[in-house]
Write the structure tokens for this entry.
Amino acid sequence: MFKRLAAAALLAATVVPAFVTVAHAQRPSPPPGPLVSGFLCCNMRTYGDSISDINYDEQGTSIVPVGTPARVTSYDFRWFGVELGGKQQRIKNDYSRNIPLPTFAQRYVVTQDPKQKLATFPAPVRDAILAGKVMTGMTREQVLMAIAYPVASENPSLDAPVWRYWRDSWSEFQVQFDEKGLVKAVVGDAVALSRVFVATPAAQP
């Protein structure tokens, strides 16, 4: 009896590692994508080493500025690794999963330095973007630089007249565009507006 139990225990000890090895081998590989170098498209808020596409303005986050040198280093299933200004970060696709990850990465790491375009904007617009704020009269491109892309799950088309954003899980604000594609209003609660809106209208060249 003792010998049979010992043999069964030995068999179990040899089978389990084999099962673990097979299960590990069957894990699918992350999607491939180009390891490009460029610049961060827009102001993004980091929690230290990770950034979400929702870009919450929460306590403990800090801004990685638009135009920061960027280099994509890896891809996983819901995020891509990127070196931003010499520091490793992950940009997570939390709310834009209808966008393939390589395309998602290309939104945030762009080949042309946005600071070159930024330098051509009127000073009030430039200052608002650098502060991460929106003002009436801004173009869609300028809004993107200032507060990044609205998440695709709630904004399937960037041509829509309203972009929906969230300052945190409970505080939505909306950027509304006129027929010329310029910001006509920013709507939200008082706290959100104090964080993202500049009342002075933008004068475009």
User: Anything to note?
Assistant: DSSP finds six helices and 13 strands in the chain. The two ends are 91 Å apart (CA to CA).
